[in-house]
Inverse folding.
């Protein structure tokens, strides 16, 4: 990438964020949402991976018209970004109106202070941090830092750390670093097992070669979940809150599904429940899953 191309990429990224922030902070949501939807028509929010996402969706049986699929992929991506900026200014009334939680009730923090929250790279779940915090469950999210930025990626790299600081702001607990040489895995174990406090994880990512994994079935293929954390919660009988949040394309709110798993016999049973839930929500809206470009690394066989 040339310096001129890198500068152009940085400016595009910056002005995309600026436009979304202005829309959600200064305009009513009904107007902001309509404008964001219109932006997708002009490829605003597009990614170099969108074509691969559409191809993989079709490979797994989701016969969506490609132009519509691309627009909905962009819409989910832009709404996820909008939710970040809206989190700075929304009040409880606004959250109550646009955050529709259904399914199981959250565990009582007095009875179950240690909880493992699980969600997927699906839809828009940023507001869940505030919801759980206000319910007395301060979730420490696990994160893996991105690689050092290349030319044209410095704004994107900076935004990762800004977003991470907002996760701390909303959740009320410091995120825990994992997956590299500075991993804080002992802090994760202490928090869940010794201190009896909640942790959050997004498990639908490729498991590195050589790492212990638990298989489960999805779309007639295998998906593998990292084994250590599943073994930890099953061994210590820690409740799992499996939740998803996704934009309702008609009503404009977020549909939030909560499934609480208080006890399972084995890690295989837990992995099967996780895979079944991921499969269900992808069928509900395949364009809301953000990892389609890498599906061949996640679904095997």
């Amino acid at each position: 990438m040339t310096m001129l191309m890198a500068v152009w990429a940085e400016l595009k990224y910056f002005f995309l964020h600026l436009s979304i922030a202005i829309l959600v902070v200064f305009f009513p949501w009904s107007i902001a949402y309509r404008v964001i939807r219109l932006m997708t028509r002009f490829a605003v929010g597009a990614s170099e991976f969108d074509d691969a996402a559409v191809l993989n969706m079709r490979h797994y049986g989701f016969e969506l018209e490609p132009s519509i699929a691309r627009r909905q992929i962009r819409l989910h991506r832009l709404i996820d970004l909008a939710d970040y900026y809206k989190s700075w200014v929304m009040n409880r009334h606004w959250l109550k109106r646009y955050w529709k939680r259904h399914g199981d009730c959250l565990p009582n923090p007095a009875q179950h202070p240690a909880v493992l929250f699980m969600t997927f790279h699906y839809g828009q779940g940023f507001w869940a941090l505030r919801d759980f915090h206000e319910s007395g469950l301060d979730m420490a999210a696990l994160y893996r830092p991105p690689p050092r930025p290349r030319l044209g990626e410095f704004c994107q790299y900076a935004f990762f750390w800004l977003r991470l600081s907002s996760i701390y702001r909303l959740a009320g607990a410091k995120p825990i670093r994992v997956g590299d040489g500075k991993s804080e895995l002992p802090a994760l174990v202490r928090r869940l097992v010794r201190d009896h406090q909640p942790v959050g994880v997004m498990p639908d990512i490729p498991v590195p070669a050589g790492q212990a994994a638990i298989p489960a079935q999805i779309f007639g293929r295998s998906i593998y979940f990292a084994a250590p954390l599943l073994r930890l919660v099953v061994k210590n009988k820690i409740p799992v809150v499996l939740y998803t949040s996704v934009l309702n394309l008609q009503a404009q709110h977020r549909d939030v599904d909560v499934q609480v798993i208080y006890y399972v016999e084995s890690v295989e049973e837990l992995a099967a429940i996780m895979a079944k839930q991921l499969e269900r929500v992808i069928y509900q809206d395949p364009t809301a899953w953000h990892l389609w470009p890498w599906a061949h690394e996640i679904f095997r066989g």
Summary: The radius of gyration is 19 Å. Residues 3-300 form one domain. The chain has eleven helices and ten strands.
